[in-house]
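ingest -> validate -> predict -> emit
validate: passed (alphabet ok, no gaps, 413 aa)
predict: started
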Amino acid sequence: MKWSKINIALYDRTQNPDILTTALEATLTGLSLSPQNPMLFTLRVLSIISQHGSTPLYRLFESYLTKIPIHYWISLLPQIIAKLSCEELNVTLERLLLMMAASYPQNVLYSLMVPFTSETSTRGPIARRIINTMRMSSPILVEEAILFASEMKRIASIWWERWISALDESSKQFVLHQNPEATVKLLLPLHELISRPPETLFEVSFISQFGSLLLDAEEFLRDYQDTKNILEFHSAWSIYVTIYNSIKPLLTHMNEFNLADASVLSNSMRNTELIIPGTNITGQQLIKIESVCPEVVIINSKQRPRRISMRGSDGSKFSFLLKPNEDTRLDERVMQLFNYISDVIKSSQVPFAAKLNITTYHVIPLTKKVGLIGWVNNTQTLFEVIKHYRQSIRRNANAEMVKIATHCPNYDT
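emit:
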């Protein structure tokens, strides 16, 4: 590794590509010798080929793929997928991903779900190509993974919540910014969403409550698009206000629900080929999803995440926080960093290194806006600690937000 660092420093001074090749080869050779901390080497390799990529470097990297234990790359799956940007590099990384998929299909499937489900991602076509290749050897597993991601998205945010969230954002655009065009762009996709036949009890209930009103509102909204008559928009907006005022108290009293009401397909999952997210550890037996527990608890916070549990094939129960409206890939990278720090400390000569381990949890992004986070028992959020302390001294737990609202009423916008 030191030899590689020296060559990288020399390359920065001379820009001699032969020196860069020597640096990469030194790192790959070290990696093939089964080092104590392989992530130090894999990160260096990925950095060299992505920052200084060239055909000779890609060919050299490919020549070592069969010499390096494939599980060394599993922990870097998020970074490998993120590097899918250059056409020539994509060919090399796609080959690496297919090699990983052959040995660790579960890990690769979970990691590919975000680009696979994204309609705008440039990595989408590559993810779909890899998953279609995996479908040839593991058709049931692939279908279960796609179904699982889709249904978790459905459970994470039900139609009442989607409309409340969209109407909240729309009101900022219309009332505060006087921008009805932005409001139309926010609301029309939701009208398209509810235009398809309802598939769950919640969706049937929503349509029976608000379906006819929303059809009227959509008609006014589209008339406004065609005519730019602001009266048409105001007619639509009055309906949206009525709907918002009806949904808000309903959600306030919804603290839990039955899984079958939000997702019939998740409720019917039994003895699957898909593993419990985050449990695939090299050398250990796979723990597969035997069923998804029927109780879903809503956490009382702004985004209303869910606590959802699954029963594993080993008989154990695994709980997760299902987070909506947030890109959990950032959380995933933070956990990677903490694990890396722990590995470095563990392999160092630092006193009491074994006791300096950072406790982490699994993060499994499923879409750009939905992800699962491993539930850590016997813990509290920082807000809860502050809240309990302030209540003990009779202070407002939300004092900062009250002050912000006083001095800057439009802070959230």
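The chain has a mean pLDDT of 90.
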